[in-house]
Automatic annotation (TrEMBL):
Gene3D superfamilies registered for this protein in UniProt: Tctex-1 (3.30.1140.40)
Annotated region (Disordered), positions in chain: 1-20
Described function: Acts as one of several non-catalytic accessory components of the cytoplasmic dynein 1 complex that are thought to be involved in linking dynein to cargos and to adapter proteins that regulate dynein function. Cytoplasmic dynein 1 acts as a motor for the intracellular retrograde motility of vesicles and organelles along microtubules. Probably binds BUB3 as part of transport cargo. Required for the efficient progression through mitosis.
Cytoplasm in keyword set: yes
Protein source organism: Sphaeramia orbicularis
A single cellular component GO annotation: nucleus
Family: Belongs to the dynein light chain Tctex-type family.
Cross-referenced PANTHER family: DYNEIN LIGHT CHAIN TCTEX-TYPE 3, T-COMPLEX-ASSOCIATED-TESTIS-EXPRESSED 1/ DYNEIN LIGHT CHAIN
Pfam families found in the cross-reference section: Tctex-1
Keyword Magnesium on entry: no
Protein name (Swiss-Prot/TrEMBL): Dynein light chain Tctex-type 1
Molecular function via GO: dynein intermediate chain binding
Lineage, opening ranks: Eukaryota, Metazoa, Chordata, Craniata, Vertebrata
GO biological process terms on file: cell division; microtubule-based movement
């Protein structure tokens, strides 16, 4: 575990996934917040979450290209499983996935950060 912490903070250029996770949570809260699931709002919400997350990441001015995905699902008792895989430079590139939920829905956001050489 120690090695991982050193890796996170060691290189100024390396992607800080913890920082990104809290940033993503703030963006989801700002867009969806206390709303209840609504079929008519889902497209607007997902678009707003990815746009807000992306612009917030870019504003940090770090040398990365970003990809952001967002899925919103109504809580119906069904299972929700997600996975992703990346082939890249693990010393510089990074990703994080945030699973957010409230009373009526799940929101899963993934951020992929690829270092600009």
């Amino acid at each position: 575990m120690n090695g991982m912490e050193e890796f996170q903070n060691g290189s100024e250029g390396s992607f800080n996934s913890e920082e990104a996770e809290s940033l993503v949570k703030e963006c989801i809260d700002a867009v969806v917040g206390g709303d209840d699931y609504s079929q008519t709002h889902v497209n607007k919400w997902t678009a707003s979450v990815v746009e807000r997350t992306l612009s917030t990441l870019v504003k940090q001015g770090k040398p990365y290209k970003y990809m952001v995905t967002c899925a919103v699902m109504q809580k119906t008792g069904a299972g929700l499983h997600t996975a992703n895989s990346c082939y890249w430079d693990t010393t510089m590139d990074g990703s994080c996935t945030v699973r957010w939920e409230n009373r009526t829905m799940y929101c899963v956001v993934s951020v992929f950060a690829v270092a600009i050489p």
